[in-house]
Amino acid sequence: MKRRILIIDSDRSNFAKARQLLDSDERDLFFLDDVNDAIAMLRSEPCDLVVIRENITASNTKSLMTFRSKEGKSFQVIILADHGTAEKQEEMLSKGAAEYLIHSRYTEALAHSVKTHLEYLTLQERSDQLEEQLAEPYSFANIVGDSESMQRVYELIRKVAPSNANALLQGESGTGKELVARAIHFSSPRKGERFIAVNCAAIPSELMESEFFGHIKGAFTGADRDKIGLFESAAGGTILLDEIDEVPYDLQSKLLRTLQEREIKPVGSARTVPLDIRLISASNRNLSKAVEQGRFRDDLLYRLNTIIIELPPLRERKSDIPLLVNHFTKKQSNEIGKKIKSVSDEAMSLLTGYDWPGNVRELENAIERAVILTDGDVLGVEDFNIDVASGENVPMVPLGREIYRMDYNKAKKTVLDEFAREYFMRLLDRSDWNISKAAKRAGIKRQSLHQILNRLKLNKNNKVKD
Amino acid sequence: MKKIIIIDDENYVNRLVQFNLTEDGYEIITALTGQDGLRLIEEKKPDLIILDIAMPGVDGFMVLERLKGSEELRNIPVLILTAKVMDEVEQKAMDMGADAFITKPFSPAELSKKVKEFF
What we know:
The complex is a heterodimer of chains A (about 475) and B (about 120). Chain A is α/β, with parallel strands linked by helices and about 475 residues long. Chain A has 18 helices and 16 strands. In chain A, helix 1 links the parallel strand 1 (about 5-10) and strand 2 (about 25-30). Chain B contains five helices and five strands. Chain B has helices spanning about 10-25, 35-45, 60-70, 85-95, 110-115; strands spanning about 5, 25-30, 50, 80, 100-105. The interface between A and B is medium-sized, with 20 and 15 residues.
């Protein structure tokens, strides 16, 4: 969409120069010589940016800025001030002008300033869009499932969201604990503030206190500057501590104190920082058992479990599988720009019959893989790696928890190798193991394909070379 | 030099169009009411009329009716420039003999292009 720029200058002879300087295919330029006409226009028409040349009394810029603030308009204003002073500049900037160019007319400085502010506007719009996108998928309505057990989950989210109560989410891996935590946050009065999700298992135990509560410079070796912790970063909002049972026992008491006193103490600091935060914790283990085993403090558990939300495993809500399959198929198709019309009845029956030990996450991965690899517009049984006889899903890419415990380069190599293995096995099967044909289809040289097959230890007989 | 009369009760629209089309080499005459517009049309015999629909008093439809009822003026092309975007408004204006339609907020480049099509 073209950017709309209005130029206001009482001297009409400047318009041609302004046009020459600012015109482009991406912009619509409007010229007016009277601020009252400009205000009439801005009252009824959209505008992204106004360039106004200030008159000697500065009355036109004052009228414009007063109109802008009274009517709550968001157009940016750049003021060209032949007779500007630093004081006037300060006054106009405080009234919301984007820029006040002293002793300036239609020069490159203005062209640069217009370009910068339009780029800023584009970034701002993109950021707003992203924020909307971020809020939308986690809004309450976007958790998929209408089974009875999920209805109970929705009911609890609805009840718990408006309050400030701590919530404990319990459920197997992949049941959507983070999604529920986000739904609680984005349905709560804190939705305008930050939501921070922390996987406690991913933080080395010796660094956890400093990650949670921050530290001051010199608190320990390597602490070369003050650092704000995750709790303070989430102030006013919500923090999710996933896999909370991974928090070391001695740190659990500090966590308890933080929740009781509603304040934190950065490592090495004598000062405490008041904290307004909502804590949601999650675990795939039974915390009561962890208490019995002496690994988890009972007083902390009582503080965390004001509300417990149990997330059912997918095998206990199989009636939701078709809904989830359609949801993920649509989502993945949109993401990669493929037009997948539907999932065949046979494939749906296969997916519904499977137990999904990795729960919704495993189902989502299976559909992602099928959408990427399918050649048709209907997902069929052959697009899923579920062995009907053994009921085993053979994942192409190990996107389970272990991948996130590897360092980035190793994880990337593992995923890419698994992808290459699957890709070339399917390609070679379709090409009757004719290497030249397969290489041509893949768009690579025959020798390169040989090298890949050797590296991945793939051959026709046993598919995987020893 | 081709002569264009613009009739719009919003002064800013007249000014915006005036600047843009003057730059394109046309002679622009403006009127803030339908009544003044009709007087100027009879007097100046323009090559094109740019006309708003929603105006107090003599509105755009009335101006169109008078123009098309006059043997002397009925062949002057009329470009409607209005905020009213309802299909029935556009249809009515076209049925009454308007030649083209642009809705506000308009793009100056689009207006220039449209005007050029008449000459």
